[in-house]
Amino acid sequence: MTEPAKTVSGNGGGEEIGDPILAEVLRLAREVALELRPRARGGLRVTPDGRIDRDLGIDSLGRVELVARLERRFGVRLSVRVMTETETLRDLAAAVRAAREAAAEEEQPAVMPPLEETAVPEHAESLSEVLRWPAERRGDRVHIRLLADEGGIETVTYGALYEEARRVAAGLRRRGLGAGDRAAVMMPTCRQFFTAFAGILLAGCVPVPVYPPFRLGELREHLLRQRRILANAGARLLFVTRELERAAVLVRALVPEIEAVVHVEDFTAAEAGWSAPDPAPDALALLQYTSGSTGDPKGVMLTHANLLANIRAMGQAMEAGPADIFASWLPLYHDMGLIGAWLGTLYYTAPLVLMSPQRFLAHPADWLWAIHRARATLTAAPNFAFELCLRRIADAELEGLDLSCLRMAANGAEPVRASTIRRFVARFAPYGFRETAMAPVYGLAENSVGLAFPPPGRSPVIDRVDAGLLARRGEAVPVAEGHPKALEIVGCGFPIPGHEIRIVDGSGRELAERRQGRIQFRGPSACRGYFANPEATARLFDGDWLETGDLGYTAGGELFVTGRQKDLVIRAGRNIHPQDVEELVGDIEGVRRGCVAVIGVPEGEEGTERLVVLAETRIGEAEGRAALEARIRERVTALLGEAPDEVLLLPPRALPKTSSGKLRRSAAAELYRSGRLGRARAAPWRQIAALLLAAGRERLRVAHRRAVAIAYGIWFWMVLLLMALPAWLGVVLVPGAGGRFAIARGAARLFLRLVGIPLTVEGGERLPRGGAVLAANHASYLDGLVLTAALPRRLAFVAKGELARNPVAGPFLARLGAVFVRRGRTQALEGELAPIREALGEDRLLVVFPEGTFDRAPGLLPFHLGGFRVAAELGVPVLPVTIRGTRSILRAWQWLPQRGAVEITILETVPPAGRDFGQVLALRDAVRRAMLGVLEEPDLETAVVLPPGAEA
Question: 6-102, superfamily in CATH?
Fold first, then answer.
């Protein structure tokens, strides 16, 4: 029985469609197109032979949605190739018809048991060594399981990958490529990508992953977009798949620097295996270009040492090992998929289960089922992927799914949404997904890939702050749930081992916690700069710190990202540079040159953005404006490979600009969101007055803040200096010990009061009656002063022996009863037990800072054993005390103090269980656990990255 013919309205002429399948395809296409472009309702023309992207404005994500609706409507499963290569709705209808006729079930991947555990190449200094290490020891071990788009599994062993890569390396050598030469790889997810990339490394050359074309029909346009990257990299060869053979002529014409376009098969079948000597650790290993860097190419230069440091530090933060299994769909040309997924699993000899991004976009449930079948323990994806699973996966697709094997799902590469986290956890908890598996992370290509990770097994931390105060004053002030101005910001964890993060203001001054500023970083994973782009490299570095381009704050040492300075539009995990699109659109006849702005508008809760093109024009008639909009869509689609979500034509002078004529994209975005773009503008004199007033207010506000900060710093040191001499004289000259300490305590309290530092003490009732060893965390130069001011008991500070000979500090500390010890002793204070016993006998608290030093970054450093050995030898308890706030007031290596409050918490005493070494260690660990429970700072005991071959 055939279905009656249908007429699709709104397609230009009400064309009658006799094919019911085609009619339904047209209806659903119109439905999706109008959802993507609501304002196009009156002029949308849907025809069987219209181009899906150019004529309907349906981009890659829109195609995914259209295919999904067709699958639900007709009960079929369409291949990934249909989604990526179908150009017209008539072709799409034919694919649906063929799928219905075939009615064949796709082969599902079999259950893949985890492989046995083995060691890792912990002493390797290059990626070449990492490739060779497992191949020589366990060549038959499966490294990669490729899940084909059409079903089935292809396995790649370590031995096979290494041998194929050696043949590629030999072929490169025969072609004259040597150390440091660049070779580009423009391939989708396939076995040949791994062989080509590994072969380039083994030849001592530098691989350059390049974004492959989404559809073969757009190869020419794609190469036009990528030619600046290929030219900037100076790539001598371009590796492609057989399907891209026709690229050869185009590439040679567009990028003369490329000598040949080659295929992996050209090498692996004939060349004898060979590899170059292992490169030096500081040799260039990878040029990583972001997917949007087509206008001003920024190739991040990463050395072998950079990549290995990042892989090791991330692995330590994730507690990764050979027993793990990683399931991924991330593209291999992106740092998260290339380094985080592939090179990470290569190093840890952990199996990688991999599918293509196109397969995930078409059928997101396949990702979850791959985790289930492989019993994967690790995975990673941008926020939009988790949102896509929520929207696109029906309950019927989840029957029998078990995600209980997953211990970490890293959520990064774009803003992480609190609502996505909550809804994903709630939706998939019945299928074994644990809240503690969701791990919001932060990273960037300039630090190889990862920079901040939460502790494994911790639930996501969501901070609620006052949005108004954050926007106006840059202060992240916590508010209660339900607060009318609450803004939820997801914590991204702590710097990976061996790396540092700081927050600075516009002048480069490090800010206190919960103050928003620019996020900077440094560490062994940090890149050397951008290849052949000295201007961009100069902007990247601030001394030995690197700029992320993002804004954020820290709280308890954890990083919270609030936004970004750079004007990138993040669309489905892809970075789009507005300048590229603006320059192209500005050349279109009818558009006012220099009067185009491209902005990103947040798309619901997905963590991705809508791409909106704002263009000024003098064309007023409807027909001319419609034609201009169509030309803009066509040119943008040709540049990016996908259509903009919206094109908004504006009258002249509608876009906000600076006084020097530069576009103000953030202001344009704000006007767009408020619906005020294109409205009649005020008189010129009013605009100038308003601009000058706003600029003046901002300058005054910045200058006032800076002046107040400097004035406070001057006051701080002036009070300290004025009080120092009388306090020193009082302590040195007063005869009684009690009187001397009373003077010191009174001076400390008065100082804190005069400089406006509130001091609160919690747990005073826990102070022991007799002697005890007081162990406090060390965060600032102020710690001894605040302890003196806060505690009602006499204190005996343990000080280094050199201070006893200091003419100023020596007499002062000696008169206060300090115990001077020699540093570097292997036995804990053996020669000083007598004076310590005497001090404790006088009902004093022996104050030790077991960390021995302090750092600018939050975190509890490893403890020295001296104080705990003393407590065990003398049989006295240890009193843990935490100090919070002093680091933000006066940080290490910083001499301009900031306002802040100090909190001291006195914890329960911990008695020693005995005097042997094991019991001393147990005492230390018990005190450390107690302090960490209150400090809410990272535990840096295990956050130590040793260079290859170093001894712990």
Answer: ACP-like (1.10.1200.10)
